[in-house]
């Protein structure tokens, strides 16, 4: 029996009244970590992998995501999220089903092998997307825990999932690069407020439900501090599903884009949402639990 079968909600959130943060009851690393880059993953909740992709691979994937963003027919697809203000492409979801090149990347042992080590099992793709943050007008992502959303709105039982963000552009401290709170993955922060129907239509562009209070963000920042993922194109950030993270707007001339892959354990498959009226579309939360081969 999997955790999803039991329907015990060990991480209640989207509550009517404010609730205090609680300590995580699940491991961070479920398997045997052998990659030196992952040595501090259990303690920090994230790891930076330098030069995951070669210069040639970065150029090829950059051309591929530019092609996708410029495709006028794809722009009409519901999997493509458009920025509210600039009317430019913000994200393309389920990109591993749209792009053969990204599908091949998912199966690359340099990529999926990292997730298998951390999660200690076979894994499947819970979500994939390309994120675009153009220069001058790229909009950031407010502080949040991915697991809080995936638990509340997708029915993910435990935080036995991780994300890999592969940089296709240089990440500077000033162009909206991702910020994380090292160690915050050990604390689950419940959020207040009922999840509206079809919440994903707004939250994918600007999330307002499922974000922590200013008080809780301040407490976490005081306790854990803030680190930033900076580095050359081709590097990657692997991070735990429950770590508190976010990014600022990009008002510089330097764009930022990345391929974002979420791996979930096949022993942690989705059930019904814990705190939402209905499931989100499968291009956001896959219910194809076949392991990556």
From TrEMBL:
| EC number in record | 1.14.11.55
Asked whether the UniProt record includes Oxidoreductase among its keywords, one would answer yes
Q: Which cofactor does it need?
A: Fe(2+)
The biased composition feature labelled Basic and acidic residues covers 1-12
Annotated stretches, region: Disordered: 1-26
Q: Which GO terms describe its molecular function?
A: 2-oxoglutarate-dependent dioxygenase activity; iron ion binding
Chain segments annotated as transmembrane: none
Asked whether the keyword Nuclease is assigned, the reply is: no
Tell me the enzyme class.
oxidoreductase
Determine the domain of life of the protein's source: Bacteria
Q: Which reaction does it catalyse?
A: L-ectoine + 2-oxoglutarate + O2 = 5-hydroxyectoine + succinate + CO2
Looking up InterPro entries in the UniProt record yields: EctD, Phytyl_CoA_dOase-like
| Keywords, ordered alphabetically | Dioxygenase, Iron, Metal-binding, Oxidoreductase
Family listed: Belongs to the PhyH family. EctD subfamily.
Known function: Involved in the biosynthesis of 5-hydroxyectoine, called compatible solute, which helps organisms to survive extreme osmotic stress by acting as a highly soluble organic osmolyte. Catalyzes the 2-oxoglutarate-dependent selective hydroxylation of L-ectoine to yield (4S,5S)-5-hydroxyectoine.
The annotated subunit structure for this chain is: Homodimer.
**Stated name of the protein:** Ectoine hydroxylase
Natural source organism: Nocardia terpenica
